[in-house]
Structure formats: C-alpha cells, structure tokens
Amino acid sequence: MDLSKPATAVVPSADADVLTVVAGTTRALTGREIQRLSGRSLQAVQNILKRMVAHGLLEVLEAGSAQLYRLNRDHVAADAAVALLDLRGRLFERIRQQLKQWPMPPAAAAVFGSAARGDGDPASDIDVLVVRPENVDETDRLWAGAVDDLARSILRWSGNRASIIQVTPAQISDMMHRNEPIVASLRRDSVLLTDTSPLTTPERAGSER
Predict the structure, then answer these.
(1) Are 104 and 131 in contact (CB under 8 A)?
(2) Closest CA to 49 of 76, 77, 15, 20
(3) Which of 93, 111, 133, 167 is deepest in the core (most CB within 10 A)?
(4) Is residue 1 assigned to a domain?
(5) What is the CATH number for 98?
(6) What's the rounded Cα separation, in Å, for the pair 126 and 61?
(7) Exposed e or buried b per residue across 142-171, where buried means at least 16 C-beta atoms within 10 angstroms of its C-beta
(8) Which among 34, 19, 41 is positioned nearest to 66, based on CA atoms?
(9) Cβ distance 23 to 6 under 8 Å?
(10) What is the pLDDT of residues 113-167, one digit of tens each?
C-alpha cells in the first residue's frame, strides 16, 4: 500500500487524489481549486469531476459564472469515499487491536518512520517499536509467536512488510541516553499503539522517581 496515498490501493491514482480533496472538506470547491489541491492536470481533473457528477457522487452548485463541486454525503458510496481517506489510520487501529490480544501485552508500542509520517510507498517497511516487559525473554514461545503473527498480519493487511524492533524498558532508556536516531524519530512523528509511549514506559517512569 502506498502509505502517502492509501486510496490508490482501491482507485486509480488521479481519481484518488481528487477524491481525497473533495471528501476531505464540506466546502464546495471550484474545479481549479480541486486541480491545485490534487496536483493533477486541469484536463484530468475535469474528466474525473464529470464522471463523479454523472454517478451522483458529487453535487454541482452554481456560484455566478462558476461551478462548485461538493461530495454528496447522502450517496451510498460517500461513506466508502470518506473511509478511503483514513486507510492508514484503520491499519494502525487493527495493529492496536491485535496488540491488545497478546497473551503478554507489550509495555508500550508505536509506529515510527515513513508509515507514521505518511510518506511511505508500496516498497516501504512499516516500522513498529515494541517494548517487551523486562520479565519476558525475547525467545519466549508465546511472545515470539505474537510478534511473528503481527508481522504476518501487517503484511496481509497492507501489502507492506513489517520491521518490528523489540526493546526492553532498560534498552529504550539506554537508547535515549545515547540519543540514538530512532529516539528522535519516535519523538518527532511516532503514532502510539498503546496508552503508554515507548519513551515513557511505566518501568522507566518508576526508575526516575
């Protein structure tokens, strides 16, 4: 899945860009506004708008000599159009739900890197940092099985391979002390998958009091 433009997994690229613009606002837009915001050629946008209007997905409003376009949110396809805008968020929610089912829940977890920033492409890995409780060994059968299952699920859900990094609270504390690049990435653009951030796990917070 192209994590920068997830809707292209379902509809052609140009259509996805136009759909992202019109479904992302309740404001009526001119064709040129849609063209500017989508980054597509005016001719391509006009053709797409014409087709969407013909299917009833877009409403056309008259504003003087200009025509304005707005998503028809009563259309049976409108909910699907809006859902396409948040495919990345839906992916993250699936990961959260699977983590909750782990027999040994992680102390914390987060997506970071290109997937968190939203600028990955179909070849990008989905980087996940998982904080393993100190009393759980990396080779524990239940823990290792849960990690492997998550990696397989992410690949199936998105088409992108998962890069799952496991650390303990002590290791993440050491990484923060050394100011490793992954720490900067987590601070800058991570998406939390648990209630606790990997940078403030309960074990670490307890050690600082």
Answers:
(1) no
(2) 15
(3) 111
(4) no
(5) 3.30.460.10
(6) 42
(7) ebeebbeebbeebeebbebebbbebbbbee
(8) 34
(9) no
(10) 999 998 888 899 999 999 999 999 989 999 999 999 999 999 999 999 999 999 9
pLDDT of 209:
36
Domain containing 134: what range? 87-208
Assign 206 a pLDDT band (cuts: 50, 70, 90). Answer: very low
Give the per-residue pLDDT at 204. 45
Q: Cβ of 188: how many Cβ atoms within 10 Å? A: 10
Q: Which of 69, 84, 99 is a domain's end point?
A: 84
20 contacts 85 by C-beta, under 8 angstroms: yes
**Contact (Cβ atoms closer than 8 angstroms) between residue 67 and residue 60:** yes
The DSSP letter of residue 161 is P
DSSP state of 70: E
**DSSP code at position 120:** -
| Phi, psi (deg, nearest 5) at residue 28 | -75, 135
